[in-house]
Structures are given as structure tokens and as C-alpha cells.
Design brief:
- α3 (71-83) runs antiparallel to α11 (319-334) and α13 runs antiparallel to α14 (431-449).
- By secondary structure, this protein is of the alpha/beta class.
- The protein is built from 14 helices and 16 strands.
- It has helices spanning 9-22, 59-62, 71-83, 94-106, 120-135, 152-157, 191-209, 235-246, 268-271, 298-303, 319-334, 337-359, 398-409, 431-449; strands at residues 38-42, 45-48, 53-56, 113-117, 139-143, 173-176, 214-220, 249-253, 277-280, 292-296, 363-369, 372-380, 385-386, 412-413, 415-417, 420-423.
């Protein structure tokens, strides 16, 4: 793969100048950022105007599950634009209906009704609204290590520091510790203990908050940005049982983990659990046109058979987005992308990342599945002290910044959050590309090793 444009630094400079003059970037101090000007992308790669090519181990923001510019999806968007570019959500539109049907076919259990949104945060907002109206309760429980989006309710549900500036403490959110054996809040020695103690902690939290006040528990099936902590066997089934016991709606957030990322269509399949509501976005159409949604169980959908659901979006089920979803799901089925993600995780990424952990003192733990992996970087493997402090910035974050710069120098664009780097390439990444990424990580981790005890 080579860049499809002749290097043109002057054009790149013009793009960056216009960006800096007019674009306000998310999650950033505007005067401290230096965005890369991207000239193009295809498959697992993108490149800049200087001709530098990068293997994208971030999948955009973990959403280009079939890579960039897949020709069948591009063609589907073009064809839909020529046929019917847009139409209001109150009407029945063929491509919208087909997208909903294809999604419902793949969701677990009876999650057969689909409410479309523009993205994952809006999906979470509407799922919580449904749960509150269905139960007549207000409180929602969410995990400390989590990310659910940046809209009003979603950011309050989020556990990471991006919530802090917007958290008024009045959103009806109660947080709890979900299981994470490597950094256990329960002093557990094995997965069975971690599972049992985490479930006891959750049920105790419910008891002291008042079961009759709690509308929903929301969990990322496999937490994404927070660290890709695969729940121990039995945990999600235990949460399902607790929800059933107290009449609480169980919401699984699969915005990042869904659509093949873990080697299943939805991560819930790994744990044989069916939530009442499931949120999705990102991989549903590889991010080609913004789309998200809520998959709704029969029981909750019935709540709104005679009672209007008080929510809606101008672009809900946008025809271009739905056309991209239909084509993406068909591509994933025809090209066996889900099966490939499972295979590449089992045979290349998993073994390769574990080998890096054996050889690099900066890698404390490797965890994940499919094309969804995290490396927990540490100063000391014995104490498990993170390579940088929680929410580090500036000089305190220098070791991770140096690691990231080294990865880019070796042609890899890394996903970095706090003391972790995530290996989250496209679900259809080739074996050769995955090994190329592992080699670049190997080189970059030597820089991280310099900061270990």
C-alpha cells in the first residue's frame, strides 16, 4: 500500500492553517494541539501530505471495523445519494427498515426493535430515558472505569476524568466498582474471587441506595477506552440476575465492543447474556456516516405501544447512514470479518502481544480478544505502579508521550489512554499488517522500558 497522492507539503500546510484558524477540537486545549493534516486513507492505513504512511492501530476512534474506503460501502452511499439522499424519520424508508432488520437479526435475544440515533452518546441518552420511563425510577448505576459519551446524561454516567468538569452531582448517577483483577478494588486473588466480590459489592450498593429507586445498571460489555477489561466468567450473568431480582433494567453499552470487534457480532455473545437494552454505533457502518442506536427488548418496547416515547432526532435513521450500515453488515457477512477478527486475535495479536509482555519490563498486563486489546504499561511489574499517574498531563505524562512518538516514528498510529496503549486495528486487518503493528510496538516499547524501575 502506498499513498495515492503525490506528497504536497504546501497543501498540507494550508489544510492545517485553516484548521487552526477555524476548527474547535474536542477534548483539547486549543492552543496546545498540533493536528496532523491527513491526505488520504485506505484499508488499515492513512497518510499525510508529506507522504508519511501510518498503520492505524486505533481504527479511527475504534470504529473503522472494515477499514477505510471499503469500495462496496462507498458505492452503497453513492447509490443511496442518487436515489434518496435524506428523509424525515417519521416515514418508512426501505434502507432504514433493512438496516434495522439486519441489526435485529444479529442482536442477542429479543432485542428486535431498533431506535436510531446519530451516535453512541445519543444512544446511551435514549436508552437511559427508556429505562427511567419503563420503571418509573430515576437512579442509574454505572462503573467507575467506563466511558459512555459526552452528552449530558452520558458524560455523567462516564467514569473517567472527562466527566469531572461537567459533573454537577445531580444527574441521578451512582457509581460502583466493576471487576478488574489486575487492579482489584476487592483484594481478590483470582477471577472467581473478583467476580464474587464485585457482585456482592454491586448488590450491597443497590441495597443501600434503595432497589426501588434504581432504573438501570449500565455497563460496557467489555470496557473500551477505560482499559479493555474483559469481565470474569459469571459476572455479567450475575448482574443480569441482580437486575431481574430488583426489577432493574440492564443496559449493555456495545458502542465500541459491538459489530465484530471482539470476534463476535456483539460481545454479549461471549458471556451468554441478554440485556434489556443494547446501545451501538461506530462499527455498525464503520463510521462512514454517523449512526448509532438502541436495540430494545420486547418488554420495554411494549411500554411505548400506547404511550409515546418522548424522544427523537432530526436525522434518526438517516438514509445515507443506513445505506452504509446495510452495506457494512453485508460486507462483514460475505467477507467473514467477524470470524477473521476472532482468528487474528487468537493466532496473531494475542500471542504477539503476550510475547511483548514477556520481553518488555514496561508491559504489566495484556488483555483482550478479537481486535480489541490493551497493554497496561507500568514502572514496575511487581508493584504494578502505572507508567504515568492517573490522568497525567505535561511532564508527568512524558513517558507515554515518548512511547507515542516512537510508535509514530516506526509508522504506527497508536491508541493511548493514560498508562495504556490499545491494539485496536480494523477487524479485517491482515496477518501481515498485524505483525507489522506488533513490530512497531516492539520498537516503541523499548522507549517505555527506559522509564521502568
Amino acid at each position: 500500500m502506498t499513498p495515492h497522492v503525490v506528497p504536497d507539503p504546501a497543501a498540507g500546510a494550508a489544510v492545517k492553517a485553516a484548521d487552526r484558524a477555524h476548527v474547535f477540537h474536542s477534548w483539547s486545549a486549543q492552543g496546545l494541539i498540533d493536528p496532523l493534516a491527513v491526505a488520504g486513507a485506505e484499508g488499515s492505513y492513512f497518510w499525510d501530505y508529506d507522504g508519511n504512511r501510518y498503520l492505524d492501530f486505533t481504527s479511527g476512534l475504534v470504529y473503522t471495523n472494515i477499514g477505510y474506503q471499503h469500495p462496496r460501502v462507498v458505492a452503497a452511499i453513492q447509490e443511496q445519494a442518487a436515489k434518496l439522499t435524506t428523509f424525515a424519520p417519521a416515514f418508512a424508508i426501505d434502507v432504514r427498515s433493512e438496516a434495522a432488520r439486519l441489526i435485529a437479526e444479529r442482536t442477542p435475544g429479543d432485542l428486535d426493535k431498533i431506535f436510531f440515533t446519530n451516535g453512541g452518546a445519543e444512544a446511551v441518552e435514549n436508552a437511559v430515558r427508556m429505562a427511567r420511563l419503563h420503571t418509573g425510577r430515576h437512579k442509574v448505576l454505572s462503573a467507575f472505569r467506563s466511558y459512555h459519551g459526552a452528552t449530558s446524561t452520558a458524560i455523567n454516567l462516564t467514569g473517567d476524568p472527562r466527566r469531572w468538569a461537567s459533573d454537577t452531582g445531580s444527574a441521578g448517577v451512582v457509581r460502583f466498582w466493576a471487576p478488574f483483577l489486575y487492579r482489584s478494588a476487592f483484594y481478590a486473588e483470582n477471577e472467581a474471587q473478583e467476580c464474587e466480590r464485585a457482585l456482592t459489592h454491586l448488590e450491597d450498593t443497590i441495597a443501600f441506595e434503595g432497589p426501588g429507586t434504581i432504573a438501570a445498571i449500565i455497563l460496557e460489555t467489555v470496557p473500551g477506552t477505560a482499559g479493555i477489561m474483559t469481565p470474569p466468567p459469571g459476572y455479567l450473568a450475575g448482574v443480569r440476575a441482580i437486575c431481574d431480582k430488583y426489577g432493574i433494567v440492564f443496559v449493555l453499552d456495545e458502542v465500541m465492543a459491538g459489530f465484530g470487534r471482539t470476534g463476535k457480532w456483539f460481545a454479549a455473545e461471549h458471556f451468554d447474556v441478554v440485556p434489556d437494552l443494547l446501545t451501538f454505533a461506530k462499527g455498525v457502518n464503520s463510521g462512514y456516516v454517523p449512526l448509532g442506536g438502541v436495540a430494545i427488548s420486547e418488554k420495554i418496547a411494549a411500554t411505548f405501544d400506547k404511550r409515546p416515547f418522548p424522544g427523537g432526532l432530526t436525522y434518526s435513521g438517516h438514509p445515507l447512514a443506513c445505506a452504509a450500515a446495510v452495506a457494512t453488515i453485508q460486507v462483514m457477512a460475505d467477507e467473514k470479518v467477524v470470524e477473521h477478527a476472532a482468528h487474528i486475535g487468537e493466532t496473531v495479536l494475542g500471542p504477539g502481544l503476550r510475547d511483548l509482555a514477556e520481553r518488555h519490563p514496561s508491559v504489566g498486563e495484556v488483555r483482550g480478544m478479537g481486535t480489541f486489546w490493551a497493554l497496561d504499561l507500568v514502572k514496575d511489574k511487581e508493584t504494578r505502579e502505572p507508567l504515568v499517574p492517573y490522568n497525567a498531563t505535561g511532564e508527568a505524562n512524558a513517558p507515554m508521550a515518548a512511547f507515542g512518538a516512537a510508535a509514530k516514528k516506526h509508522g504506527l498510529w497508536p491508541f493511548i489512554n493514560m498508562n495504556r496503549t490499545h491494539a485496536v486495528p480494523a477487524c479485517n486487518v491482515s496477518e501481515a499488517e498485524a505483525k507489522e503493528g506488533l513490530a512497531a510496538l516492539d520498537a516503541a516499547l523499548t522507549v517505555a522500558d527506559e522509564h521502568t524501575a
